[in-house]
Amino acid sequence: MATSVMDRPSITAPRAVSRATAESRVVRWTLIGVALVFLALVLVLPLALVFVQAFSKGLPVYWEAITEPDALSAAKLTLLVASIAVPINLIFGVAAAWCISKFEFRGKHLLITLIDLPFAVSPVISGMIFVLLFGAHGWFGSWMSEHGIKIIFAVPGIVLATTFVTAPFIARELIPLMQEQGSEEEEAAIVLGASGWQTFSRVTLPNIKWGLLYGLILCNARAMGEFGAVSVVSGHIRGETNTLPLHVEILYNEYAFAASFAVASVLTLLALVTLALKTLVEWQQRRALADRPHAADTPERIAA
Amino acid sequence: MSIEVRNLRKTFGGFVALDDVSLDVPGGELVALLGPSGSGKTTLLRIIAGLEPADKGTIHFHGEDTADQPVRDRQVGFVFQHYALFRHMSVFENVAFGLRVRPRNVRPSEAEIRDSVMGLLHLVQLDVLAERRPSELSGGQRQRVALARALAVKPKVLLLDEPFGALDAKVRKELRRWLRRLHEEVHVTSVFVTHDQEEALEVSDRVVIMNEGRVEQSGTPEEVYDRPATRFVYGFLGDVNLFHGRLHQGRVRIGESELDAPEAGDQEGVAYVRTYDVQLHPSPSVHGSLEAIVRHVRAFGPVIRIELDLVKDGRTIEAHLSRTQYDSLPVTKGQCVYVAAMNMRVFPDGTERAG
Predict the structure, then answer these.
(1) What ipTM was reported for this prediction?
(2) CB contact under 8 A, B51 and A8
(3) Which pTM was predicted?
(4) DSSP label at B26?
């Protein structure tokens, strides 16, 4: 049979700037200029200042500030909290995105709205919620003190608050992606005899991996940088319930500016690494999604 | 492997998608489910596959009840309208998927998988593209990969949901012929859904025509086309003219004119006449005396299409004449002619089926 027509690949036109929506040169350069000045003042200058301040007293002071026991314990706690909160949100996020995008059920819209709740309320209020629930005078406070469970002004409280604040990141990233992909591929896998787990690990997961990684990176960045909610539940006990952001504040309030900025620079560096990773993942994601039609270049066996 | 569907019912909320549907697909046949969108044909296909549960009714594969069989154990091949290929896998891996997910004790060896996948890719003429990603293929190629993937698990039943729906007209025609030939080679019981009557009539051994969740008629393409059982089938397959009139002693009275009718009876009814069964005469004849004015003539190609306005009630009818017929009576616009019908089917008012 003639394969000529059947084998024609889809051709996508390269994207070009439309003449109709192009602005005049003056308008364009003014807008770009305004944006650049704004970026320089609001983003680049503060970022640079963090590092300038951090090294203002020289390298030894910087090193001392980030290696003293309290700073190290704050760093350890930050990592610990992130390493608990992020996996919890990974499981919750994937599960929530899965059921929202693949099933129809009552209360679905309510669930979508609830996922956004931590974004909508101020972090301080998020912290207060947990104090109200688990604090000494909170709803479960007396019961917990009887049983010797300590949540507020302790590590569990910090983990809870961080988990709450970072809950939406992964789910929010996955829901539109999974909705757009639909469930036909999963159906195809099941018809072909795949089990539920095989379907998830071989079909669903590879399709969402870049979105998932993107969500993970953002979730992790927020988990390490969270200040407001953690500040309310932590109690600021040095060497015990101090995370890196809280440690920065304490040092600053004690007029140890150089040390404060030194610790801040570690967090900033973390943010920069996050941004770099995020860009890399975005780039990978675009590459994975992009159609690369070059079927026409290759000769094909044409059967009669 | 035959499929017997009995009294299937399915509702979505208040919408009745399938209403007491029964259907037999003899083993080895290629059956088309044909109907307009919303007629329930895709729902029926998905229920047969096990992708959707039925509210009521049973499905037997070769006499065996499928009610307790989960989808993955039914051994069906399903081809989706939009291919549903695994986008992150190569063509080869797509086709191999069904073999690789088998439990270890029944999984073929790597060499066996390779042989069987390459054999299938050869069958669908895509073996040189085995390492490509689905995104690098054209629509027609993707659909063939989807077919190879479905066949890889040696399904007892092959189900295709609008397999050519997303392709352009020319590719569709080629794939259609190709599917017919493939079926002759593989000979697996196949059901495919389509809304394209030409596709259904050309490809299948048997056509099941569905409308509003019911089976209107099922039979060979010749049967359903030549002897439509219901008004709907008459209207859905091919072009048809409707004459409203009164049945009386083997004639249909339309106003003061009459046409020969095959059936007797004495009541109001609608006569269905295929466009190519309409005959035009220069003067009233014993077969018919329905006066009409020629409104438009399209005289290109092998079939001459003529639009006529009936003088009695102003309705428009269409006549398709062969070139020889046209040459013996070359009508022109505005001319007055008399209409007769060669074959006619009369449906008395208030009935769906022919009287």
Answers:
(1) 0.81
(2) no
(3) 0.77
(4) -
Which runs of consecutive H residues, i.e. helices, occur in B124-212?
139-152, 169-186, 197-203
- Nearest chain B residue to A192 by CA distance is B98
Q: What residues of A are in contact with residue B116 (Cβ under 8 Å)?
A: none
Give burial (CB, 10 Å; 0-12/13-18/19+) of A300. middle
How far apart are alpha carbons A83 and A159 in whole angstroms?
9
Nearest-neighbour CA in chain A from B163: distance (Å): 14
Chain A residues close to B82, C-beta within 8 Å: 184
In this predicted model, what pLDDT tens digit does every residue of B114-132 receive, in sequence order?
Answer: 999 999 999 888 989 999 9
Shortest CA gap B8–chain A (Å): 21
Using one digit for the tens of pLDDT, what is the confidence trace for A48-80? 999 998 888 888 889 988 898 999 999 999 999
Q: Helices B169-186 and B139-152, interaxial angle, to 10°?
A: 20
Determine, for residues A292 and B125 on separate chains, whether the beta-carbon distance falls below 8 Å. Answer: no
Do residues A204 and A186 make contact, with C-beta atoms less than 8 angstroms apart?
yes
Residue of B nearest to A190 (CA): B72
Say whether A188 and B80 touch across the interface (CB within 8 A). Answer: yes
* Pick from B26, B3, B1, B31: nearest CA to B204: B31
Half-sphere exposure of A219 (CA within 13 A, CB side): 31
Alpha-carbon distance of B312 to A193, in angstroms, equals: 64
Q: Is B288 exposed, middle or buried (0-12, 13-18, 19+ CB in 10 A)?
A: buried
List of chain A residues whose C-beta atoms are within 8 Å of the C-beta of residue B120 = none
Contacts of A294 in chain B (CB under 8 A): 136
- In angstroms, the CA B259 to CA B337 distance is 14
DSSP string, A261-303: HHHHHHHHHHHHHHHHHHHHHHHHHHHHHS----GGGS-----
